[in-house]
Design a protein that fits this description.
Length: 375
C-alpha cells in the first residue's frame, strides 16, 4: 500500500453507483431511468421487473452502498484521514446531481470519485463519466461553482479487491462435499455486454476482440485461480463466463452464458462448481437473482453441486484499498510518483481515460477524462 497520507488536493470522496429501487412503487420508474434510450426489449424489462418484485421491490444495492460508506468512514477515521465521503447514483436517489450540488454547497471543489465498477467498459466507466458531465452541466446552469472531479483508476487488480475474493473461493470450496471438492471447476462470471462494447473497451491501443473488458477479467480470474492452487495444491479448471444478458437476441453479446456453461460442465462430467462473481462489487440483484436464484436452480436441475463465492461488499480490506487509491492519486496529482498496487499481469490502470476510451454509440460529453470539457 502507498505510504502517502496526504489527501491534498482532494477535499472529498464521492462514491458513485448504479442505484436501485427501495420498494415496489420504485421498480418501474427505476427501470425507465436505467433503460431510457437504450433499446432494451419490453419483454426483457417485464422479466427484470419480476426479479425485483421477487425481492419485495427492493434492490439490495443501496443497503450495500450504505454499508460501504460506513466501512470507508471507519477506515478513514482509523487511518487519521480527514476526508468526507458522499454518495450519489446514476439511476436512483440519492441522485448524482443532488449529491454534487450538496458537495459544492459544503465547499467541496476537488473531488475524487470511486465508481462501484472495477473494470473498463462503456457501462462501467464512460457512462459514469457522462453522468458526471451531465451533473456538472446542471450545476453550471444553476450558477453554482463547478468542482473538479477525478475518477479513480480501475481497481479490478488491486489486492484489496482480489484477495477477499480469493478467500471467498477457498471458503466456497471448503463448503463442498469432500468427494467432489478437488474436481470442482471455478466459474468466473461477469456482466455480459454487447460484443461491440467489449471490443472497444479501454484505451484505443487495447481495442480488439474482447477489448480491455475481457482481458481485465481474464487477468483477475487467472490471478485468483493461481492463488487458490497455491493454497490448496489443487489445480481447479476454470473459465470466464457471462450473465445478465439483456439486449435484442440478434445483437451478439459476450458468451457463454453461465447457465449454458453449467450444463456443459455437467455433460463433461464435472463433479461440482464454484461460481465466482468477479465482475461485481457487491451482492446486488445480478448476483442475488441471476446467480443465487436462476443459475443455482439450473445447477440443482442438473444435479451439479454449486456454491457462489462472496463479493467484496464492505470488506475492510476493500475500504483500505479505496483509501490507498485516493492517496495514490492525490500523490500523483501533487506531481510525485506514488507506489501503485496491482496483482496479475496487466499492471495498474491509467488515471485519466484517454481519448477514444470505451466509446459511446452516440458521442456525448464525458467528465474526468482526456476528452473532458471540464478542467
Ligand atoms: C457492465 C455492467 C455492470 C457492471 C458494472 C457496474 O456495476 O456498473 C452492470 C451493473 C448493474 N446493472 C444493474 C441493473 C441493470 N442493468 C441493466 C442493463 C444493462 N447493464 C449493462 C451492463 C452492466 N450493468 C448493459 C450493457 C445493459 C443493457 C442496457 C444498456 O446498454 O445500458 C438493466 C436493464 C434491464 C436489463 O436489461 O437487465 C438493469 C435493471 C445494476 C443494479 C442491480 C441492483 O439493482 O441490485 C448493476 C449494479
Ligand atoms: Fe446492468
Amino acid at each position: 500500500m502507498s505510504d502517502q497520507h496526504d489527501p491534498a488536493p482532494y477535499d472529498a470522496l464521492l462514491l458513485l453507483s448504479f442505484g436501485g429501487p427501495e420498494g415496489p412503487d420504485d421498480v418501474v420508474p427505476f427501470l425507465e431511468n436505467v433503460t431510457r434510450g437504450r433499446g432494451i426489449p419490453r419483454e426483457r424489462l417485464k422479466e427484470v421487473g419480476q426479479h425485483y418484485f421477487l425481492f419485495g421491490g427492493v434492490s439490495p444495492i443501496n443497503g450495500q452502498n450504505r454499508a460501504l460508506l460506513d466501512a470507508l468512514r471507519a477506515d478513514f477515521a482509523a487511518a487519521g484521514l480527514a476526508l468526507p465521503v458522499y454518495w450519489g447514483n446514476r439511476n436512483w436517489a440519492p441522485y448524482l446531481t443532488d449529491t454534487l450540488r450538496e458537495m459544492v454547497r459544503d465547499g467541496r471543489r476537488r473531488i475524487a470519485v470511486l465508481t462501484t465498477s472495477a473494470y473498463a467498459s462503456y457501462s462501467g466507466c464512460r457512462q459514469y463519466r457522462e453522468n458526471l458531465a451531465d451533473a456538472l452541466a446542471a450545476l453550471e446552469a444553476e450558477g453554482l461553482p463547478v468542482p473538479r472531479v477525478d475518477k479513480l483508476r480501475h481497481y479490478f487488480n488491486h489486492p484489496g479487491f482480489v484477495e477477499p475474493m480469493t478467500e471467498g473461493v477457498l471458503a466456497s470450496l471448503a463448503e463442498l462435499d469432500e468427494s467432489v471438492r478437488t474436481g470442482a471447476h471455478l466459474v468466473f462470471t461477469t456482466h455480459s455486454i454487447p460484443d461491440s462494447a467489449a471490443d472497444t473497451s479501454g484505451p484505443v491501443a487495447d481495442h480488439g476482440p474482447g477489448g480491455a473488458y475481457v482481458r481485465q477479467h481474464l487477468d483477475v480470474a487467472r490471478t485468483i485461480a493461481d492463488a487458490v492452487r497455491e493454497k490448496t495444491g489443487t489445480d481447479h479448471p476454470w473459465k470466464l463466463v457471462y450473465q445478465s444478458r439483456s439486449g435484442a437476441p440478434h445483437v451478439p453479446w459476450l458468451e457463454p452464458d453461465v447457465c449454458d456453461h453449467l450444463a456443459e460442465l455437467r455433460a463433461a462430467g464435472a463433479p461440482a462448481a464454484v461460481m465466482v462473481p468477479i465482475g461485481f462489487v457487491s451482492d446486488h440483484m445480478e448476483v442475488l437473482y441471476d446467480l443465487d436464484t436462476e443459475a443455482t436452480a439450473k445447477a440443482a436441475e442438473l444435479e451439479l453441486p454449486v456454491r457462489r463465492s462472496a463479493t467484496v461488499g464492505a470488506d475492510p480490506r476493500f475500504a483500505a484499498a479505496v483509501r490507498d487509491l485516493v492517496l495514490e492519486r492525490a500523490a500523483a496529482e501533487r506531481g510525485t510518483r506514488p507506489e501503485r498496487c496491482a496483482l496479475g499481469a496487466l499492471g495498474p490502470s491509467h488515471d485519466l481515460c484517454p481519448v477514444g476510451c470505451c466509446p459511446a454509440r452516440a458521442e456525448r460529453p464525458a467528465a474526468a477524462g482526456a476528452d473532458s470539457p471540464y478542467a
